[in-house]
């Protein structure tokens, strides 16, 4: 999957969802989650197929071994630059959606600029 495709898919998913994906995890409390309450998914979780998802990697970073394997099984090989993109998207999800969609959209535009991607404002 190309970086622009990753960005577009995440952008579309999170705009539609409009909220953070949260979950209670023993030992961590309520945290952002790849798969959360009411079917929510974070910026990276929306790229992971149901077949490749494992609740045991909740709390693991996007570049953790199990998350990396799930991404590879779901979208194919992920380059180092794409992992950087995914980390930025994950941070935007975790830190900015709770501050409001306006702040989150600003972050998405900055990410697009940083990675030379096309950003389309919401309709």
Which features characterize this protein?
mainly alpha; 2 strands; 7% strand; globular
Oligomer: single chain
Q: Using only CA atoms, what is the Rg?
A: 14 Å
Task: Report the sheet with the most strands, covering strand number, pairing sense and barrel closure.
Answer: 2 strands, antiparallel
Largest beta sheet: strand ordering: 1-2
Compute the separation of the termini in Å.
25 Å
User: What is the residue-mean pLDDT, rounded to a whole number?
Assistant: 90
Number of helices: 4
Strand content: 5-15%
Structural class determined from secondary elements? mainly alpha
SSE arrangement, N to C: HEEHHH
Low-confidence stretches: none
- The total strand number stands at 2
Shape: globular
What percentage of residues falls in helices of 4 or more residues?
40-55%
Write up what this structure looks like:
This protein has 123 residues and is mainly alpha-helical. 46% of the residues lie in helices and 7% in strands. It has four helices and two strands. Strands 1-2 form a two-stranded antiparallel sheet. Strand 1 (22-25) and strand 2 form a beta hairpin. Helix 1 (3-17) runs parallel beside helix 3 (80-96) and helix 3 (80-96) packs antiparallel against helix 4. It is globular, with a radius of gyration of 14 Å. The mean pLDDT is 90.
């Amino acid at each position: 999957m190309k970086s622009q495709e990753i960005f577009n898919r995440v952008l579309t998913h999170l705009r539609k969802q409009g909220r953070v994906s949260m979950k209670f995890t023993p030992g961590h409390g309520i945290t952002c989650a790849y798969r959360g309450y009411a079917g929510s998914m974070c910026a990276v979780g929306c790229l992971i197929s149901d077949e490749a998802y494992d609740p045991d990697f909740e709390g693991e970073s996007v570049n953790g071994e199990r998350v990396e394997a799930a991404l590879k099984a779901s979208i194919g090989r992920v380059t180092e630059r794409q992992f950087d993109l995914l980390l930025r998207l994950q941070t935007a999800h975790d830190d900015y959606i709770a501050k409001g969609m306006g702040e989150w959209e600003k972050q998405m535009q900055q990410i697009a600029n940083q990675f030379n991607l096309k950003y389309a404002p919401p309709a």
